[in-house]
Amino acid sequence: MLVKKINLKFLICVTTALIGALNTGCSATASYLANEQQNIDQPEGIEVRFNQLSQAEYKSPINGRNRPGDNLEQFILEAINGAKGEVLVAVQELSLPRIAKALAAKHRAGIRVRVVVENQYRKPWSQLHAAGLPAHQQQRLGQLAALADANNDGRLNAEETLNGDAMALLETAGVPLKDDTADNSKGSGLMHHKFLVIDQKHVIFGSANFSNSDIHGDAGAGHTKGNTNHLIKVNDQALAQIFRGEFEKLWNNQFGINKDSGSTQEAMVGTAKLQVLFAPHKRSNPSNGLAIIANTLKQAREKIDLALFVFSAQELTGVLEERVRAGIKLRVLVDPGFASRSYSELLDIMGVSLPDKRCKLEAKNKPWQKPLMAVGIPKLASGDKLHHKLAVIDGKTVISGSFNWSPSAAHGNDETLVIIHSAQLARHFTREIDRLWGGANLGISTGLEKKLHKAERFCGKVMANRKVSP
User: Fold this and answer.
1) Neighbours of 234 (CB within 10 A)
2) Rounded to two decimals, what is the model's pTM?
3) pLDDT digits (tens, 9 = 90+) for 33-68
């Protein structure tokens, strides 16, 4: 299939009632009516927390300052400290020493504690050397060392090093640990779960890793608030058994595509129905996560709100286009660091194509013929990411979990995807999306426009005769 040369004249600014008429340019700043409701009741048996919630406040353990948001670390610690018989943890990264100490204390008290992490984060950071590490891992190493420097003298003694290293604390205490290389492979795409199960009757899951960058913010960067994240706690034995079943598969060395992930499982918690799917699945499997999300989106009758870290699943963009044609109102926010990548589906929704460095477009690239500009990127502190994997449909259905909207999540990673049917819970997530929507940069930003111009200059002469990437 041939692709057409990018023509920036095609980038006509299509507006919606959400934005209003724009006189110039193709971008706008979103606004919204603030939700005056300070407290929204939690559904029966379910609690949700957001680390940047405007209506809450806590003291940051990084710099001691009061900051907006729920303390997700304390939320986790309270669950662990309340355990009477068993604590199961499956999380991509566990680097918060306080959580490690709580798990170690339970283990020493005779509580059964088991932990599964992604292999990249299994080794204690104090045993790593910056030389040879990728740039982002070097940055992480520096931040963890800075956090461990309890007396702020710029040097780490043996006590500070141990007390600041979560993996070393777990090892020293003898807490049973595994990662996704336990099956003698190089690991799954990612062991990307973020859940824990307490006493076979409580479950916490969501988008947050157990790290400072995902919860509180970065060391040495007091302006950061942590990547935008949420956690949900459900008190229900049936749901706990569903999650415990997934954990046992991991503990028995079943990871990635070699794991029998099965199909959607359901549990009723009060009046809320929860559908749970664990990834990955083969592409031919109709139970794969992207297919489940697509089927849920197709049920929308009024509106769809999305707040996504990664959005690269072409098939979901097609479903959204069909829904918009049917009159559904759509709002989409994507992480600023991902939004303008060549394989970002946000570009398709805005009706533009951006080739990669080789002047190739992603396979099956399909920009919308009627672009939507009520989409864009949220305003975040420098260094923070939009880390939700979140959808709210018709104000009554929530899609949550660790599952990014990407082929990798569906077909390579160990992931959690949860669909919750609860209008009461949906109100909490709508308020969060409203918060992110305020001040968001919508439509084709100045930065994206520059990238498109650069691509036209660099690739324009060859695009007309170049095939798409395989």
Assistant:
1) 25
2) 0.92
3) 555 456 899 999 999 999 999 999 999 998 889 999
